[in-house]
Amino acid sequence: MYDVLTTSFRLSCPQHGETSVRLSRFRRLEELPGPHHPAVYRIVFECGCGDEHPGLVAQDDLDLAPLGLEDDRTFLNLMTSRTDSLGLELTELAAQRIKAGEWPWSFYCWPEDRPRPVFPSAFRLLADGARGGHVGVAVLCPVCGRISVNLVSREHVDLPFHNDREIGVVAHVFAEDASATIEAFNAELYSASFDARRLTLD
Ligand SMILES: [Zn+2]
Ligand SMILES: [Zn+2]
Asked: For residue 25, which ligand has an atom nearest its CA?
């Protein structure tokens, strides 16, 4: 489902069959109701064919696979001439960085006026190409439960541990319900009401 070497998800396109999709090409994420272990997200992504398609992604694939936790492939370690587990290697790297105080993803919570660590399953809406190639992302704060809209680079979304130093934040408190948020999201993305905020988690 997720390929750590290309940092993209394998999803299906009715025209091309399987296609490779980076997280920044996701457009909407919504948790499926009901008891799923792990949770399952209904997503919509913008495909290379020009259309948007739906897909289903498990929470583990969204949040853990980009860190290497789901990867059972092996590689030849040229230092030791042994075959090592790619997933294990990446997981150890990720664990070291998290222990050192780095978090794979972060965002700026506007209602709380502070940066917060986050996982991609908290992303709700994404829009590519806003303001000179930036990505607008609506994030459901895991702590206060409210939505903030940040303007970030594609790498900030697609690459774990790539956190932009400074991002744009929409100075707007978004409604709880999804359809009102989508409307406000689209309106605010193209308005002038962005504030710059620093993403330093300590
Ligand atoms: Zn397609
Ligand atoms: Zn918050």
From this structure: 1
